[in-house]
Design brief:
The complex is a heterodimer of chains A (485) and B (323). With 485 residues, chain A is an all-alpha fold. Chain A has helices at residues 3-34, 48-63, 68-85, 89-102, 107-123, 131-148, 153-167, 175-185, 193-201, 206-216, 225-242, 248-268, 296-307, 311-331, 334-344, 355-360, 370-389, 393-413, 422-438, 444-453, 479-483, and strands at residues 270-273, 287-290. Chain A has 21 helices and 2 strands. Chain B is built from 10 helices and no strands. In chain B, helix 1 crosses helix 5 (95-127) and helix 2 (21-40) packs antiparallel against helix 3. The chains are: A mainly alpha (485), B mainly alpha (323). At the A-B interface, helix 1, helix 2, helix 3 and helix 5 of A face helix 2, helix 3, helix 9 and helix 10 of B.
């Protein structure tokens, strides 16, 4: 071949390739305009390399497997469904994981798999071993499902539900443990490097957090599961409303999850750390979740809007009005509760009882026997002691005041002579705790604060029934509960 | 003169390819996959129709990859290895003409197959996966597709029976017949809705009707064709370089071209970007928008890249001893 011919071939090849490279650029631009590439992830919170890899995976799985893909998916679905029916959740989860690789662009696949992990698989294990599976379900939806389906409002809804319902409520026996684990994970300063890394890992966009803070007028504390519930329901609402034709039922579900989250935050949105906070004995930090009045206004607005829609919603609103007064009594004192009661009593249905009766009816039907009054007294005094020990003096004083109200109203009304003084009951409750803790050498150091406050001898000890169920699940502040897994 | 040579070589190559059992098997297998596709895309949890279209276009692409790789290996690689190409090249036929003729022959065979696949895919997508056990069956589509298939088989059988001693094999006649009967069946199905009610043919492409033929699917299937053309040229290049590994290398280049996806590095432009010919994402969008402008650009990209590959192939063949 002559050099001229060689040159000619090289020239043709060069020009052709040059044209191809130019056209490739034009085609890539055009694809972006026409949105022909898979929309992957949220650049605000995701690693760009991970997004690029995910996009390649979608293209390879979709275009590279052709007809073999649905065949494999069919086989895997059939097998996974069979295994699920046979209660072989672990094997079913493995197969579902393969399906998500083959069909990553369908939100339903991720939802199915995540539900399996968070709800079905976790339920087969002892309570202490469940949280990692719930976490896997969350990670699957958050890190992968939303990466491949960034516009999916349903994945955001499922995430919100896992936080609000699975973790935020006692939907299974380990609900309390889930809330603890989550609170421990987020027990960091959000502005510290560790905190920023943690928020990034959990795909919590600081800009978006600021937006929801502004919307609700509260700085959300992500130690509470429901704060995540609100975050993801708002994310879902953004996605649902960005759709060309928003689906009413999805918007309604997301709004409901947001409202439930607010209600739960109002009732139990503030984590209180148990007095034993070190992990010296290999024990995780424990929390009790107490009412958070910062959410009162947002919850009231949400419930008021909803109250006219159904009798259940109206009942919840009525319950809110009562609890709003009670929580103010516990946290801010008698005057604040009375002021709130004066403002809201006209909205209470049926007509509001006297403030004292309303307060006494909290977790206990007023008008019970002396025995039941004593039991309530024991519960409230115990709550007072545990909160005092945890450094929550305001709330502790609230329970002491409530106990005093039980004492003055019911024990005095029982007749049969004047009851022992209230302080004697307080000493009795403290004495009982001290005696209980004395039996555990490791708790000795926790006795010191109590011994300072209360006399250590048995002087003036009365008879009080055993505590039954402490309000607001405050039993979790009791150190022996912390020490005994 | 050269045009006539190219045409003759192309026609001979086309005949040689479509007479291969592997070609018939691939066409039959792909058509069978489309026939079964409404059933096998049922487990898609609500996005069945999108998945059917997505994998239908992907299947078209994959089938094109295999067809072009096998065809190039057969009509170029094997002829060079067996030295049968020498018979042609010893005549006053340029090596460039030889390659272009072979390329056109392969393109024709692949285009015929893609034409049938596209019609089958459109029919399958109109039928769609059954949403429930009681979902109505699209009988016009079933009748048209089965009728077209049976008619083509009958034509092949009759032709074989009447010309028992001719060289026209059953497969080739059936394929030729299918090129008539399947479009006919498609037309017939287009004039009826699911309930056998007559309709304007244009209504069969109404994007507002979920059970109509999807015009975007047609465009997506057409977009695959230039991608397959690039693969044909690459398959020819590999058949000259390494005949035995040509099929494998073509498949690897296809997968590599998909994997580079939308990378922005200029050097990636040297690798054929098959991702540009695939628009599976389209079927998951609320308002798909695939323009003819994009299709035109893709055709130009395909032409440019095919020209580069064929030039390289021709350059290699010029310096190669074929005798």
């Amino acid at each position: 071949m002559t050099p001229t011919k060689n040159l000619l071939y090289l020239l043709i090849m060069g020009v052709s390739l040059g044209c191809a490279i130019f056209l490739r650029g034009r085609l890539l631009d055009e694809r972006r305009v026409l949105e022909l590439d898979p929309r992957i992830g949220n650049v605000a919170v995701e690693d760009p390399l991970a997004l690029a890899m995910a996009e390649r995976q979608v293209v390879l799985a979709s275009a590279g497997l052709g007809v073999f893909r649905p065949l494999a998916i069919d086989f895997l679905w059939l097998r996974a469904s069979h295994l699920q029916r046979s209660m072989n959740f672990f094997e079913a989860a493995t197969l579902s994981g393969l399906i998500t690789r083959l069909q990553p662009r369908l939100p339903e696949v991720w939802r199915f798999q995540a539900h399996n992990l968070a709800y079905n698989l976790s339920a087969t294990l002892p309570p202490r071993e469940r949280f990692p599976w719930v976490l896997r379900g969350i990670k699957l939806l958050r890190d992968e499902g939303l990466r491949y389906n960034p516009q999916s409002d349903l994945i955001a809804l499922d995430l919100a539900l896992v936080f609000q319902y699975k973790i935020g409520r006692d939907s299974d026996a380990a609900g309390y443990l889930y809330r603890n684990e989550l609170a421990a994970i987020f027990d960091v300063d959000p502005e510290s490097p560790q905190g920023r890394a943690r928020y990034r890992e959990w795909k919590l966009d600081p800009e978006f957090i600021k937006r929801i803070d502004d919307k609700y007028g509260v700085a959300f504390d992500f130690r509470a599961a429901e704060a995540h519930g609100i975050y993801w329901s708002e994310q879902g609402l953004d996605r649902a409303q960005a759709a060309p034709e928003p689906e009413d039922w999805i918007v309604s579900l997301l709004t409901n999850v947001g409202r439930h989250s607010l209600w739960q935050l109002f009732n139990s949105g503030r984590p209180v750390k148990a007095p034993l906070t070190e992990s010296r004995y290999g024990v995780r930090v424990r929390y009790a979740f107490v009412p958070d009045l910062r959410f009162a206004n947002a919850t009231r607005r949400a419930l008021e809007e909803h109250a006219s829609l159904s009798s259940d919603a109206a009942r919840t609103y009525q319950e809110f009005l009562k609890r709003d007064v009670l929580y103010r009594f516990l946290l801010l004192g008698d005057e604040a509760a009375r002021a709130r009661f004066e403002v809201t009593r006209d909205r209470m249905e049926p007509s509001a009882p006297a403030l004292e009766k309303l307060l006494l009816e909290f977790q206990w039907t007023a008008g019970g026997s002396k025995k039941s009054a004593l039991m309530k007294l024991a519960d409230y005094l115990d709550a007072y002691l545990l909160l005092e020990l945890a450094g929550e003096s305001d709330l502790a004083e609230g329970f002491r005041a409530l106990a005093r109200l039980v004492h003055s109203t019911w024990l005095l009304a029982e007749g049969g002579g004047a009851p022992p003084p209230f302080d004697a009951y307080v000493r009795t409750a403290a004495h009982r705790r001290i005696e209980e803790w004395r039996k555990q050498p490791r708790l000795k150091k926790h006795l010191a604060p109590l011994l300072k406050i209360f006399s250590k001898d048995g002087e003036g000890i009365l008879s009080l029934p055993e505590t039954q169920e402490l309000p607001l699940s405050l039993e979790h502040l009791n150190p022996p509960t912390v020490l005994t897994p | 003169m050269r045009g006539a040579q190219v045409f003759t070589i192309g026609r001979t190559s086309f005949t040689e390819i479509v007479r291969q059992p592997v070609y018939g098997l691939m066409v039959l297998g792909t058509l069978a996959a489309y026939a079964l596709s409404p059933a096998i895309s049922m487990f898609s949890l609500g996005s069945d129709r999108s998945v059917l279209k997505d994998f239908g276009v992907s299947t078209l692409f994959i089938a094109g990859v295999f067809l072009s790789a096998f065809a190039a290996s057969r009509v170029v690689g094997r002829e060079l290895a067996n030295r049968t190409a020498l018979i042609l090249l010893s005549k006053p036929v340029g090596r460039g003409v030889f390659l272009v003729g072979k390329f056109l022959g392969i393109l024709s065979a692949v285009t015929v197959a893609s034409f049938l696949f596209t019609l089958a895919l459109l029919l399958a997508a109109r039928m769609g996966p059954p949403e429930s056990a009681h979902a109505p069956v699209d009988w016009p589509v079933v009748t048209a597709a089965c009728g077209a298939f049976l008619l083509a088989l009958a034509a092949g059988a009759i032709s074989s029976y009447r010309a028992a001693h001719s060289s026209r094999p059953f497969g080739m006649v059936t394929l030729k017949a299918a090129c008539w009967t399947l479009p006919l069946g498609f037309l017939v199905a287009g004039f009826f809705d699911r309930g056998w009610h007559p309709q304007q043919f244009a209504a069969a492409f109404d994007p507002e009707v979920p059970t109509a033929f999807d015009p975007h699917l047609l465009l997506a299937a057409l977009l695959v064709l230039p991608g397959i053309f690039v693969l044909c040229s690459i398959a020819i290049l590999f058949s000259i370089l390494w005949r035995r590994a040509a099929v494998l290398m073509t498949i690897l280049v296809f997968l590599g071209g998909l994997a580079i996806a939308g990378g922005d590095l200029p050097l990636l432009g040297l690798v054929p970007n098959f991702h540009l010919f695939w628009v599976g994402e389209l079927f998951y969008l609320e308002h798909p928008n695939l323009s003819l402008h994009y299709l035109g650009l893709a055709v130009l990209y395909s032409a440019a890249y095919s020209a580069a590959s064929l030039s390289a192939a021709s350059w290699l063949l010029q310096g190669r001893e074929v005798g």
